[in-house]
Amino acid sequence: MVGDRRAQAGAVAGHLDAQRAAGRSVEVWLGDGTRRSLRVVAVLATGTGSNGVHVTGRNAGGAPTDHLELSWRPGTDTAAAEAAVRAALAPSGARVRTGDDWIADQRPTGSRQTLAGYLVVLGIALIYTGIAVATTMVMATSDRVGETAVLRLVGATRRQVVLFVVAETLAVVAAGAILGLLVTLLNLLGLWAALAALSAPAVVVVPWPVLAGTSLACAVIAALTAGATTVSALRRRPRTGRRPACGGT
To answer: Which UniProt keywords apply (predicted)?
Structure first.
């Protein structure tokens, strides 16, 4: 924070170099071009957006106040305090909002065209992902025709072979989903630690319904593809691998 030498209260500068410690002077140019020497009274920790320089109202050149941030002391009757603030600010036409309401208003929103573009790109990606899962299961199951034939030769019915392949496929999908979740949580933990180090701690929110729906869709595609490929392979007559004996001459 930078403040006038003659002022008791100063302003804050969060983006000053290490030499601009509290108590030192810094040369600044105000909005009207006036050059002044102000005293640094505090330095803010660097956040995610890099803090700008704040000055007192005396050095703001008549800039109006855009917002006030209020917090309550422990034990304060918040309902009564909020009502008093609203009554005091009512003549000025100022809006009183909670922190969550203010964040919701400041959150950037895209146009309908942008949202439609995102949905198109996401839809194409999901379709190709489903195709990739299906083709992978077709190739993996086709390579195991010999194993399914052995199961048929030892007495397993077609239904038992298909159920076995489908169960094994679902186990592979579950293992992949768990590993993917662990990797995602590890990345989120790294981001959370980095933001906390920048004095901007964040709450990790995992969209469990979306993850569950995606995993379920992959499981259905993989199971149907593996099952259909196995049924197609079982239509062929299993071979024992024996060669007919040749009579001697």
So the answer is: Cell membrane, Membrane, Transmembrane, Transmembrane helix
Query: Residue length, the chain?
Result: 249
Report how far residue 50's alpha carbon sits from residue 72's, in angstroms, rounded to the nearest whole number: 27
Which of 18, 40, 58 terminates a domain? The answer is: 58
Q: How many CB atoms lie within 10 A of CB 153?
A: 12
The DSSP call for residue 81 is H
Q: What are 184-240's pLDDT values in tens digits?
A: 999 999 988 888 887 777 888 888 998 899 999 999 999 999 999 999 888 765 554
Whether residue 211 is found in the same domain as residue 141: yes
Neighbouring-strand partners of residue 25: 39
Domain that residue 15 falls in: 1-58
d(CA 65, CA 55) in angstroms, rounded, equals: 12
The count of other CB atoms within 10 Å of the CB of residue 115 is 11
Q: From CA 75, how far away is CA 82, in angstroms rounded?
A: 14
- Give the predicted TM-score (pTM) of the model: 0.58
